[in-house]
## 1
Amino acid sequence: MFSFNIDHKDPQSSARAGVIQTAHGEIQTPIFMPVGTAGTVKAVHQHELETEIKAQIILGNTYHLYLRPGIEILQQVGGLHKFNGWNHPILTDSGGYQVYSLGNTRKIKEEGVTFNSHIDGSPHFFSPERAIDIQRIIGADIIMAFDECTPYPCEYGYAKKSMEMTHRWLARCCERFDNTQGLYGYEQTLFPIVQGSTYTDLRIQSAEAIAAFNRPANAIGGLSVGEPAEDMYAMTELVCGVLPADKPRYLMGVGTPVNILESIALGIDMFDCVLPTRNARHGLLYTAEGILNMRNAKWKDDFSPIDANSPCHSSRFYSKAYLRHLIHSSEILGMQIATLQNLSFFLWLVTEARAHIQAGDFRAWKEMMVPKLETRL
Amino acid sequence: MFSFNIDHKDPQSSARAGVIQTAHGEIQTPIFMPVGTAGTVKAVHQHELETEIKAQIILGNTYHLYLRPGIEILQQVGGLHKFNGWNHPILTDSGGYQVYSLGNTRKIKEEGVTFNSHIDGSPHFFSPERAIDIQRIIGADIIMAFDECTPYPCEYGYAKKSMEMTHRWLARCCERFDNTQGLYGYEQTLFPIVQGSTYTDLRIQSAEAIAAFNRPANAIGGLSVGEPAEDMYAMTELVCGVLPADKPRYLMGVGTPVNILESIALGIDMFDCVLPTRNARHGLLYTAEGILNMRNAKWKDDFSPIDANSPCHSSRFYSKAYLRHLIHSSEILGMQIATLQNLSFFLWLVTEARAHIQAGDFRAWKEMMVPKLETRL
C-alpha cells in the first residue's frame, strides 16, 4: 500500500515534489505535519485541520498516548484514527524523544529504557519491541523506529556508541515489525532514523547503515536540538546524499519556515515541529510577510485583518488588535486563532514550495521568500 | 428601534414567547445569552456562536472591557461589534458586579465606587454617569444601569439602604442616558435593575420604583448569589407580578437549566450565566438527558457520541471517551468541545421552551424535563 512517487525535481536544487500513498489517503510532498501530541492538535478541531489548515497528515506522540488515554483504550476503540476522528494519515514517533526529555530518572540500557511518567511518577519500560507493539496498537499509518536522540552538544564517543545502539535497536524494531501485522486491517509503514549527532563520519556511517535496511522511507533524527542552523543544513545535505533518492526523507522536529524551505532544497520531503502551535499559544504569528509578536503594543489599534492573504477564514475575519487583546488577556480564543494562522501558513508554505518545484522555479522563489520569512514585523 | 412583541402566552404559567427588536437584529424570547466577558465567549469562535450554538445575543462585561482592551481602543474601532466581529445584538452589564466581586479595596459611596484593577492594581472610579459613558463607547445594543448587587445573606438595613441608593443611581443613569446618544449611529437601550435582596417588602418596593421609570425593559438583579432556589423563585415571581407584563424581563446571572425553565414559567424572558461556559472548561456537560461529569472514569471507554441529539456537530462527531481524555489531559480542544456542547444545549433549551409556549404545552413539557435535567448521568 505505502508508495512514493516523485512527480517533479527542481533543476536548481535537490527539492522534489511527490506523492506518498498510505492506507488513509495520500500525502503530497513536501509536507508539514502538525503535531497532535495527545491525539489532538492543541486548540483546533479536526474539521478545522481539514478545511482551514488543510493538513494532510498529523503526528501523535507515542509517549503521551501510551500514558493517556493508554493503549487499552486505543486498542478497544480500534486505534487513534477512530479515537480522535481524524480519518487521514497519522504518523507516530516512537516515544523515545519524550522519554528522554520528559520522563524522570530514565535509564538507557541495551535492552531498552526504564523511566517514570512525568504525570504520576509511575515506572515504565520501553524497548524497540515494545515501541513497535505500542505503535501497532495506536495504529498510525507511519510509525517510527525506537532510537536514541542524542542531545547537543554531544561528546563524540557517546554519539558513536549511541548511534551504534540505535542501529542495533533498528534491527530489533524491524524484526518485531516484520513479524507482526497492523491490528485494524490496514498496513503500517516503519521509518528508520539516521542519528550521529553533528559528526560528519558518524552521519555518513549512520545514513549508510539505515539505507541498508532498505525500508520504504527514511528519517533523520537528532537535529534541531540546539545546534547552529549551518550544522543542521550540513548534516541534512550529507545524509540526503547517502539516503536513496527514490524514497521519502523525513527531517524530524524541523523547524522554522526558513529551515523548512532550506531543507526542502536539500531533498527533504517531510517535516514536523511544535513551533507553529506552541508559538501560536504564546502569541507569535508566522505569515508570508514575516513574524508578528502579537504581545507588542504596536498591534493594539491595528484593526486590519490578522493576515489578509491567509487561506484561513479566522485570519481574514479577525483584526490584529482583537487578536492582540485576546493574547494579552490569555483568552483561549486567542490561542485558537493564532494556531489556525500558524498551521495554515505552514501548510500554505509547503504547498507553495511544491507548486514552485512543479513550476521549476523553486530556488528563485525560496530566495525571494527567505528574507521575508525572517522579517520581524 | 427597540421593541418587544409577545406572540404567545402559556395558558398554564406566566411564560411567554416574544421577539425583541434591536439595532443589530431580533432576539426570540425566552433567550439565553452566552457570556463573553472580555469580548470573547471563551473557547468558541464567533462563527461557531452563529452556526453551531445559534446564539442570538451575547454579553460583554463592562468592567473587563474597560480594563482590557480599554475604551480608547473600543471607541477608535467603533464599538465592540466592530472589535470582535459579532454583528448581532450585544448586552453589557454596568461593571458594578465585577467591581464588587473582583476589584480590590473597593469603596462604595453615594457618588460612585472607587476600586483597584484586579490586573495591575491601578485605581479607577465608576459612577452611574461613568457606567453609561463607558457603555456608550462599548456600544452594546442593551446596556445596564449601574446598581449595587448585594451579597447573600444581606442584613435588612443594608439591603434597604443599598436598594435606595440603586434607585437614586438609576435616576442618574437615566438622566445621563437620555441626554446622550449612541456614538455609532444606532440606538442603545437602557435596562434598569430591581434589587432588594431576599426581602419581600424591599423587592416589591424596588419593582414598583423601577417600573415607575417606565423604561422599555426591566431586569432583576441580586439573585442567584447564593440564596436557596426557593427564595430566588419566590422573589422572581413577586417581582414579575409588579413589573409590567408587556416589557421584557431579564433575570441576571441565572442559571441552571432547571432555574431557567422555572423562571420562564414565572414570566422571565432573558437569562445569562457563566455556568455553561465555566463548567464546560471543568468538564461538566449539560444535555437534555442530564448532567455528565467528563472527569469520571466511567466515560473512559464510552465511545458513543458526546450527545447524539445535540444540534452541535462536534458533540455528534466526538465520543465521550475522547472528550474525557481531552478534559483529563487539560487539552484546549476539550474546553472547546465542552463549551460548544453546553452553550448549544442552553440555546436548544430556550428554543424548545419557546416552541412549547407557542404550542401551548410548555408546563407539561417543563415538568417532564426538570427531573431529566437534574439527573447525574
Note: Chain B touches chain A through 42 residues (CB under 8 Å).
## 2
Amino acid sequence: MTTPLPTPAQVASPLGLHRVLDPPGVLPQAAWRLDPSPVIAPNEVRVRVDRLNLDAASHRQLHETYAGDPDKIRAAVLEIITTRGKMQNPVTGSGGMLTGTVEEVGPDSPLGLKPGQRIATLVSLTLTPLQITDGLAAWDGQSEQVPCDGHAILFARSIAAVLPEDLPVPLALAVMDVCGAPALTSRVVKKGNIAAIIGAAGKSGSLSAAAARGAGAFWVIGVVPTETEATLLREHKGLVDEIVIADARDPVGLAEKVEQAGGPADVTVVCVDATGCEGGAILSTKQGGTVIFFSMATSFSAAAPGAAGLAADVTMLVGNGYVPGHAEFALDLLRATPQVRGLFEKRVRP
Amino acid sequence: MTTPLPTPAQVASPLGLHRVLDPPGVLPQAAWRLDPSPVIAPNEVRVRVDRLNLDAASHRQLHETYAGDPDKIRAAVLEIITTRGKMQNPVTGSGGMLTGTVEEVGPDSPLGLKPGQRIATLVSLTLTPLQITDGLAAWDGQSEQVPCDGHAILFARSIAAVLPEDLPVPLALAVMDVCGAPALTSRVVKKGNIAAIIGAAGKSGSLSAAAARGAGAFWVIGVVPTETEATLLREHKGLVDEIVIADARDPVGLAEKVEQAGGPADVTVVCVDATGCEGGAILSTKQGGTVIFFSMATSFSAAAPGAAGLAADVTMLVGNGYVPGHAEFALDLLRATPQVRGLFEKRVRP
C-alpha cells in the first residue's frame, strides 16, 4: 500500500504541532521556537493583533532586569518574539494574552469566529505563533498593555472570546486574563464555607473573592500585604468580610492573623505572584480544606513536603487557566459586582 | 472570669513553634536552631533514636565536601546536629528520617503512640528536634543509614508510623517513603474509572496502580519508559490491564499510546521524577478528569498554562505527602497485592 505524502494542510494538528520548529514533536508551549507564518491551514485562524497583555510575572521580571528602562524593555520583548515566534519570557516561562481582529478563518476551524470580529485570545501567548511588524513603536515600554501591529495564529483547540461591547477593551482584557481564577474558585467553594483570598485587592483576587461570595461563602477573608491595599479594600466595602494585612511568606504570622479574622479557611485561594507562600496558605486552611494556587510562583517542591511537614490534610489544586465558560463568568461577575469593577478600574489604565 | 497565666507546657505549639530558638517565630523547618531538650511538653513524644536515614542529596554533599573521609563526615554530621538541634544539612537544606523506640508520651499527644513501640518518623529531620549522645561512634561515616543513640521530639502535628512486625524494616521504610501517593489516588479514583499510572513499575506507581484498582477502577493503564520496566510489569501480571511503553515527556506520543490502550483516563497519576511530564499527563486525561502530580519535578508554570493551552478542563492536584492513615493504607496494599510486594522486593535491598 502506498500512502501519498500529506500536504501541510492535511497534517495541521488541532494542538498546533505543525507550527513547532524547535525542538520538533513537542507541544507549542514547550517549544523554544514556533513558526508564525501568516499562511493558515484549513483549521486555523489568523488574527491581526493590536495589543499584547503581558503576564504579570513576566512584566515584573523584565522591569527588574532592565531597571525600568523602556527602550531596553521594548528591545527585550521584541527580541523574544522575533527569536521564539511567540511571546514567552524565557526566565519566567510565562506569556500573557492578546487582542486583535479576526482576519482569515480556515474552512475547518471549529472556533466559530468570523472575519472582522474583535477578539481576545484566552490561550497563553506562550503557545501562540506571533509576528510583530511595527517594532512595538507605539508602546511606552512601561505598561503591561503593549499596543502593536502584527498577526497571530489560532489552532483548532485554541480558546478565543469575542470582546464585549459594553466594557472598555483594557478592562475586558484584564478580566479575561485572570478569568480561570474566579471560575475555579466558584467550583470549589461550597455554601457556608469560609474562604481566604490571598491578594484580595488584586485582579484575580478580587474576582475570586466575588466568586467565593457568589458560590455561597459565609465569610470571606481578604489578605493583603500593605495598608495601601487594605485601604483599597475598605474603599470597596463588602467585597470581603474581614481584611488581614500580612506577609504571605510568613506562614506563622499569616495563619495567626487569618485565624483572628475568622479562619482557618475551608478554601484558601493564592492570587499573589510571590515565592514562598505555600506554607502560609496551607497553614491558613482547615484540615480537610482546599488550597487553590493561582500563582505561577508556586513550587511543587515547597507545596507537597510543606503540607506533609505540617501534617496538613489539605487538597492542593493547581489553578487551571481553563474552565469552560470562564470568560463570560468573570465578565458577568465584574458587571454584577461594583467593588470588583471599582478595583479593576483603579488598576487598569483605559 | 480570670484566666491563669499559661505555663510553657500549656502553650506548646502543635507545630513545634515553642522549640524554635533562632530565628524566633518561624516554622521549625525554616529555623536555624531548635531546642532538643529531652523534657517533653504534654502534647509531645520523646523517641529513643536508633537510626538516622540521611536524605540522598545531603549524604552526597557531605561525601563530596570531605572527599569520603569517614572521620570528617562523622564530625560534620555531629557538628550540624549539635549546633542546630536537628539534622538539616545547611548546604542542601535537606534532612532525612529516623527510626527509634517511643520512650515517653505526653498525656495530650494526639499521635496515639505507646512507649516501647518501634516507629519511623514520616516528617523530615529538618523539623525534628534531635540530640545525639553516642558521638555517632557506631557509624562507619559512609552509609546514609546512620546507627546512633540519642533522642528526638515529635510534636502534636508530627507524623510517625509504627513499624510493622511482619515486614522487613527496609521494605516498610520504602513503602512509607511514598505512601502519600496511593492514599490520594484512592481518594480520587471512582468506581468504573479508567486510570493511567505514569511510572507504574516504580514504588509510588505500583502502589498507586493497586490503589486505583482497589478504589474500583474499571481499567488501569500502566505507563513505563522502557521495555525493561514493561517486562517487570508483565512479570507481575494483573497489577495493570494494559502496558504502555512511552516517553512521558512527549505529550503527543504519550497521549496517542494511552488512547490506544483504552484511554484517555478519568484519572492520571504522575509518579515519575522527570521534568516536562505535565502536558502529556493533561493530554492523556479526559475533559472533566483529574491529574495528580506526585513528582517534585512538576512545574506550576508548565501545568497551569499547559492545561489552558490545550483547552483542557482537567482538575490538577498537587500530590500531598500526607493523607491521614496513609502509611497503614500503603502497607496494607503491599500486603494484599503480591505484584506490588514483588516489585518492591526487586527495588529494595534487604
Note: The two ends of chain A are 61 Å apart (CA to CA).
